[in-house]
Design a protein that fits this description.
- The protein is an alpha+beta fold and about 220 residues long.
- α1 runs antiparallel to α2, α3 runs antiparallel to α4 and α4 runs parallel beside α8.
- The longest helix is centred in the N-terminal third of the chain and has 18 residues.
């Protein structure tokens, strides 16, 4: 379709066609692309993208027993078919869950982080000092701030053991970082734990909720 086809009617029709909460995010991406297009001087008209009403805020967090079920679901899982039959193929998801629960870090920052500085623009773990640099030196700061985080000693111990065993990234598959491709495997682990309403971002809510329940000062959290 052309830019002239972007109207309130077609935006609303698209939201009905998709019939999913993700429709709003997709239309936001379209709006950003159109704004960038205009700022580059490729269009002289102002094209408005009409967004559907936002859905209810997600505030789902896990109890400690639910978190344990989710963790064990990923850690203990073994393939039942195919060439990897009998192998533990979701332990990288278990590592992701541990780090996200302990640090409240977003999925992308966890999955892209390396165990030690390996170059590139991603975040990394200082295994000697126990600090998680969640924003790489080459990455620009955004409104979703990613300040360095002090790691709990128990989690740091896990990370040092992973690195000693030959792992170079916090979450890796076949020796390579999974980047942001953890969603599918995470959904399967959550389903195995009978937690169908949990997403990766629920771990961030969980970390914050547990800190508040312990009476942690807001600034420290």
């Amino acid at each position: 379709k052309k830019l002239s086809d972007v109207t309130g009617r077609t935006c609303r029709a698209y939201a009905v066609y998709r019939d999913k909460p993700v429709a709003r995010r997709e239309l936001e991406d379209l709006r950003a692309a159109i704004i960038h297009h205009r700022r580059e001087g490729l269009c002289r008209e102002v094209v408005e993208v009409v967004l559907p009403e936002p859905g209810p805020a997600r505030d789902r967090w896990l109890t400690r027993s639910e978190a344990a079920r989710l963790l064990w679901s990923a850690y203990r899982y073994k393939e039942t078919n195919g060439p990897k039959r009998g192998q533990h193929t979701r332990r990288h998801v278990a590592r992701f869950i541990l780090v996200a629960l302990y640090t409240g870090t977003r999925a992308g920052a966890v999955c892209g982080a390396s165990l030690g500085p390996v170059g590139g623009g991603s975040g990394w773990i200082d295994l000697e000092r126990g600090v998680f640099y969640r924003r790489g030196q080459e990455e620009k700061e955004t409104k979703k701030r990613r300040p360095p985080a002090r790691l709990p000693l128990r989690l740091l111990g896990h990370m040092r053991r992973w690195h000693k065993n030959g792992q170079n990234y916090v979450v890796e598959w076949m020796g390579k970082p999974v980047s942001t491709g953890i969603e599918k495997a995470f959904k399967k682990a959550a389903f195995g734990a009978n937690l169908t309403d949990v997403t990766q971002h629920s771990l961030r809510h969980t970390c914050a909720t547990w800190l508040m329940q312990k009476g942690t000062p807001i600034w420290e959290a």
